[in-house]
Specification:
- 2 copies of one chain form a homodimer.
- With 318 residues, chain A is an alpha+beta fold.
- Chain A folds into 2 domains: 135 residues, 2-Layer Sandwich (60s Ribosomal Protein L30, Chain: A); 156 residues, PurM-like C-terminal domain (Phosphoribosyl-aminoimidazole Synthetase, Chain A, domain 2, Alpha-Beta Complex).
- Chain A is built from 10 helices and 13 strands.
- In chain A, strands 8-10-7-11-9-12-13 form a 7-stranded mixed β-sheet. A 4-stranded mixed β-sheet of chain A has the order 3-6-4-5. In chain A, strands 1-2 form a two-stranded antiparallel sheet.
- In chain A, helix 2 runs parallel beside helix 3 and helix 4 crosses helix 5.
- Chain A is globular and about 60 Å long.
- The two termini of chain A are 34 Å apart.
- Chains A and B meet through helix 1, strand 2, strand 3, helix 2 and strand 4 of A and helix 1, strand 2, strand 3, helix 2 and strand 4 of B.
- Strand 2 of chain A pairs antiparallel with strand 3 of chain B, so a sheet runs across the interface.
Amino acid sequence: MKEFQLIEQFFRDKGQKRRDVHLGIGDDCALVQPAENKSIAISCDTLVENIHFLPSMPAHELGYKSVAVNLSDLAAMGADPAWMTLALTLPDVDNDWLQQFSEGLFEAAEYYSVSLIGGDTTRGPRSINITIHGQVPTGKALTRGGAKIGDWIYVTGTLGDSALGLDILLGKQDVDPQFKEFLINRHYHPTPRILAGQALRSLATSAIDLSDGLNSDIAHILKASNVGAVIDVNELPLSTSLVGSVGPEQAINYALTGGEDYELLFTVPEAQRGALDTALIHAGVKFVKIGQICAGDKLRLVSNGEPFELDLKSFEHF
Amino acid sequence: MKEFQLIEQFFRDKGQKRRDVHLGIGDDCALVQPAENKSIAISCDTLVENIHFLPSMPAHELGYKSVAVNLSDLAAMGADPAWMTLALTLPDVDNDWLQQFSEGLFEAAEYYSVSLIGGDTTRGPRSINITIHGQVPTGKALTRGGAKIGDWIYVTGTLGDSALGLDILLGKQDVDPQFKEFLINRHYHPTPRILAGQALRSLATSAIDLSDGLNSDIAHILKASNVGAVIDVNELPLSTSLVGSVGPEQAINYALTGGEDYELLFTVPEAQRGALDTALIHAGVKFVKIGQICAGDKLRLVSNGEPFELDLKSFEHF
């Protein structure tokens, strides 16, 4: 099948066409009209079969997740989702797979008001690359570099569920049936914290999304902000399903190193805590304080006032 | 090696940082500031080893060409190059290869004032995906859809050299040594027609870049503009090296179907021909008239007033 036909059949003129898209798929380039006084936030992520997702992952879930993980990067900047391009590499042309993949992709795109504006398909081992674009008022973007000594450290949602969900899929863990669906769903269907990111624009001093695991992701904030941090492992938000499935130490290990939570970690000064409560409760997002920024350049984990030792195993791509 | 280290070592803070880039590689997203009253042109292209390039292709040339073919899409819209993201999939971490690839990539990026603002590396069969961004005054972009009956059809540069260069590399053709380097260089080192595209903004009614071969690429203009075309195969611009290497019929075949020329094909109304001459000569770009837009929906090839029969073999990705 021709590249053109693939794109035409499954992706062109599908999904929402935003009013700021002058020209979508079908010319040499797409044309979009940026809003005034906004910066554009741009991020790209590749998902490769057997590295970032299992061959058994349902196509619909993969389509959804491919968009969601990119949206999570926009959330971490406080940006409003806008446009994306898709580069799809496939070993063969499987119409059923493509139909389900595109439905999952557009489900996420519609919900978060993203237009698919460009596509490219090539033959090869299955991988999905999305470049996503958002808009954020100039000067208001959240970055990794603004955390100050004394700021409180927060995370949204719960941590570790996705990694346990993956271990269930891999047959490494067996859990009570009542928890299984929730955990696997957290792995397949992450919730990009777009609303939280938007609400944090004028409140947080730094933010990052948790893709590799809290323990390694927070290091980026510490480095970029030139600070250290103390985190109380007993404050980590754990789901009933995680706590009900593994022992307390393993639960903390999943929460700290599991990866693929796609929750936001952010820092807020004491003076903004009241405004934070108001803003995030209004946005309907659960969040919890887990620690504080301090001097130095290291992360210290504590439990009941004592140092907490962690067996490190963070998710790395190479 | 960690993904972060790869990006850090070879791509971060390398090359030009444009003043409109607020934040480059190293956060969840890049942040760029679009100019006022401009649309953003966005395109993405994937190059996969053994499909789009030979395993023997030198890394420097591959780095250069990966950017150049994306710039060619911007040229076809009349856009000014601005920013790009790179998703690199590699079978292993080869420092020499990465060094040369990045040098080639930044050579093209510097020359055309593009900043690399985001990167992602994954392990897998070698492929390069670039999403490129340009800016064009709102309403002035060249598209495929504006060709009118009576408009003249032009192309820049010469056609067919790249395909013959590839056939030389594949051992399918053997040519006189005096032509060999030029032809292979045309395959490895295409010239994106950025200046020509900019000059055509107020002159051309439609434009496309020739990546798959004139014969199949012009069909996109005919379909989008709802017109037909007549092309005189004797007017096709052929290089001395092409004409000196193969017979006249084969030369025309290369020029019509070879692909990877990355020249511009565009249409101009009679009333703008004088302005066109002035603008493109000022831009230092060679161009030639090869035919005319007519009623209908087909491409007719003619030679000395007679229909010209072509043995079709256009480049398709699937």
